[in-house]
Specification:
The protein contains three helices and no strands. The longest helix is centred in the first third of the chain and has 23 residues. Helix 1 runs antiparallel to helix 2. With about 60 residues, the protein is an all-alpha fold. The chain has one domain.
């Protein structure tokens, strides 16, 4: 059982979006964690169409439940 390349790509996209939104919120004068929460809410809606096996692998990694 190896980690699929698609899942690694999802992880990189999640981390990049979270960091970008955190930086934007900090530059606007808000705490960065609000950007991280906003990214999580947005990505949660977008990534619900993931294949079931990819979703369960991300859940095992503790990224997406």
């Amino acid at each position: 059982m190896g980690i699929h390349v698609d899942v690694i790509g999802y992880v990189f996209v999640i981390i990049a979006v979270v960091r970008i939104l955190a930086e934007i919120f900090e530059r606007l004068g808000y705490p960065g964690f609000l950007g991280e929460i906003s990214a999580g809410l947005s990505l949660g809606v977008i990534l619900t169409d993931l294949p079931r096996e990819d979703m369960s692998l991300l859940a095992e990694l503790g990224i997406f439940s």
